[in-house]
Amino acid sequence: MTLPGLIVRNALRNRRRVMLTVSSMALSLLLLTLLEVLLKGLTDPEGSVAGAERVAVRHSVSLANMLPAKYQARLERLPGVSRCTKLLWFGGIYQDPKNFFPQFACDADALFEVLTEARIDEAQRRQFLEERTACVAGARTAARFGWRLGERIRLLGAMWPANLELTLRGIYSGTFDDAMLFFHHEYLDEMLGDLGFTGLFWVRADSAARVPELIERIDIEFRNSDAETKTETEQAFALGFVSMLGNLKLLIRSISTVIVFTLVLVTAGTMSMAVRERTREVAILKALGFRTWRVFALILGESVGLALAGGLIGCLGAWGLLRAVDLYRLSGGLFVSFELTPGILAGGLLVAGLLGVGGCLIPAYGACRSGVVAGLTRPD
Known about the structure:
Structural class: alpha+beta
Helix content: 40-55%
Strand content: 5-15%
Number of domains: 2
Number of strands: 11
Strand order of the largest sheet: 6-7-5-8-4-3-10-1-11
């Protein structure tokens, strides 16, 4: 019998234990892979080519501080600025507080000149521009609530003392998330009494190459003013929202560390039992001329094989789960899109392989050190 054949026969000797070990490994790697996907989606969001040309201009203190609306004219005069729109987070309640989705007041005439990758029918865009209470929504949010053109959407003010009566006049697609709803900033100003402020400015640069220069120029323009600005790339701005949830990276890494430590114990315990049951057989193999490295290879191959089998099942399970489950609907719009990349998949399998190696080192060392006579005379 070949060495690989002997490894397989040894691994399948106690099938119940094999099934339990592989199952625990698969479930743990499934959870570990999902956590890595979640971590990448939150801390390294996907960006678009058009998004590389946009920057967000907000108050230097925090997102909760407002900026004067009159800043817009000064921004549009700066070299490198192609188009600019005001954005103000409304945060209204649609039917139920659980129905979360991003809602922004904007300059309707500039929105799609800043959000250049968005695709919308020209007739719908014109209706949005011409009607004061009109709004446009991303295709994903429209599908989530079953909205159709002409739908009446009532948003109850949670952050602002205003209830909005909107009419859906357009549905756009082609952006990263297709989840936001936009309505006229003038309409919200009217409801609030035209307080003369906005939350931030969304600025499109002439080109992505000019973005670093533009960021510096904007902040210099408003330095030493009553409301100094902090200008960020679109991706950095998105990560600012994630940071409000706390140190998610530390939390997810801590959970992943606990999972890996547990898997090491599971693998080591399984291989310890397997080696202890075969003490006499190992002694017989040594008596027949098996060298120490062959004995070590038998135990290592069995351990790594079980770990990789569980890791492969877990990673494929995570891939299937992410494809089958609409994370946007399941999270109530909080999480938009998470993808199991080849790098995360390879990382999961690498962790499984290393666990197989680490879990067998102590049992294998003990088996290699044991003598032939001690092994043959040891009682079962």
